[in-house]
Amino acid sequence: MPSPSQGVWHLGPVPIRAYALAIILGIVLGVVIGEKRLRARGGPPGAVVDIAVWAVPFGIVGARIYHVLSSPDAYFGEGGDLVRALYVWEGGLGIWGAIAGGFVGALVAIRQLGLRLGVVADALAPGLLVAQAVGRFGNYFNQELFGRPTDLPWGLEIDPANRPAEYADAATFHPTFLYESLWCLVAAGLLLLLERRLKLGHGRVFLTYVLLYVVGRGFIETLRVDQAEVVGGLRLNVWTSVVVGLLAVLGLLVSSLRHPGREATALRDPAPAEASAAAETEALDAGAEPEDAAAEGERAAARARASASGASEDDAASGADDVAGRDRRE
What is the pLDDT of residues 46-101, one digit of tens each? Predict the structure, then answer.
C-alpha cells in the first residue's frame, strides 16, 4: 500500500494540510452524529455545536500536551527544540490528552446548557469513534506512527526519509493508522448494538466506548515503532490504555449499582418543586400517609437542589430528612 506522495497543498501562500483536513472532517462527522443523537433525546438544536466550541480547542491543547510529555526527547532532550511543541501541523496529538482536555471543555459547555453529563456523553460516544477513525488518516498523509516492518500484502510503503534509523532498509510497515481507524468503526457498530440490546444509560455508553477503544488501542500500540517512553518494558501508551480501561470498568460497575436496569432519558434534572410534587404524588399513589409523602417530596427536592448545586446528594437528602422530621414534630 503506497503512502501519499505529499500531505500539503498550497493555495497561493496558504498551505492546506491533509493532517488538518482529516481532523476537521472527523470533528464535523462527530458533531453531525452527536447532534442527531442528542436531538433524538430531546436536546436543543445546536447543543452539540456549542459543546464542540469548548471541547475541540480544549481537546487539541490537551492532545498536544500529552504528546509532548509522553515523547519528551524531541522537545526537552539533547538536540530537542521546545518551540516545536507549538507546531501542531507537523503531527503529534495524543488521544488521551484529547479525551481529557475535550472532557473538561465539554463539561464547561454542558453545565452552561444545564444538561445532564451522562446523557450527553452517551449521545456523543459513537460519533467520537467515527471522528477518531477519520482523524487517523492524518497520520497516513504525514507518514508517521506506523508499525513494525511487515511483508503482509497490505504493508504500508514509507519513504526512506521517514523511516526510523534502525529500519532504514525496510520498505513496508504495519499501517497502524488503518488498524486503529477500522477498529474505531467496528467499535462504533458494537457500541450501537450494545446500547440497543442492553438499554445502556447513565454514562454507560460513553464508558463502554472508552473500554472498547482501549482494547484495540492497547494492542495496536505494541506494533508501533515511533519514539515513546517505555516503562517496565511497555510503551507508556500501553500502560495508559490499561489504567484507563480499568477506570472504565470501575465506572461501569458504579453506574450499574447506582442505576440498575434504568435507561436515562431526561436531559435536565427536574426543578426542586417539580421533583417534590412528583415524588409526593408517587408516594400517595403507593398508599403512603400524607406526612410521609410530604417527607418524600422534601427529599426529592433536596436531591434536585444537590444536583443543581453540585452538593452531595446524601448530605442534601439527610438535610431533607431533618426538615421532614422537624415538620412532623411541630
Answer: 999 999 999 999 998 998 888 888 777 778 767 777 777 777 766 677 888 888 99
Grid coordinates of 314: 446524601
Q: Sorting pLDDT into bands at 50, 70 and 90, what band is 268?
A: low
pLDDT greater than 80 at residue 270: no
* Identity of residue 87: Y
Contact 94, 63 (CB under 8 A): yes
- Burial (CB < 10 A; 0-12, 13-18, 19+), residue 168, is exposed
Instruction: Round to whole Å and give the CA distance between 47 and 229.
Output: 39
CA dist 68 and 73 (Å) reads 9
As annotated, the binding site includes: 136
**Does residue 276 register a pLDDT over 70?**
no
Compute CA 98 distance to the chain's CA centroid, rounded to the nearest angstrom.
8
- Helix 117-135 and helix 47-70, axial crossing angle in degrees, nearest 10: 60
